Amino acid sequence: MTTKFPFRSSIILSVAGLSAIFLPIVLLRAGIIDAFTARIITMGGVNAIMAMSVNMIVGVTGLLSLGQAGFLAIGAFSCIFFHADLGLPLPLAAVLAVLVTAFAGFIIGFPVLKLSGDYLAVVTLGFGEIIRVVFINMRELTGGPNGRQFITPVILNGELALVLVTSVLVVTLIITQNFIRSSYGRAIMACRENEIAANSCGINIFRYKMTGFVFAAGIAGAGGALFAMVVGLVQPNVAQFIRSVDFLVFVVLGGMGSFTGTILAAYILTYLLEFLRFLQDFRFLVYPVILILVMIFRPQGLLGTKEFSFVKTWDALVRLFVKLFVKNDKNPQGTFRQGPGEPGAPSGAAL
Question: N or C: less crowded end of the chain, CB within 10 Å?
Answer without folding.
Answer: N
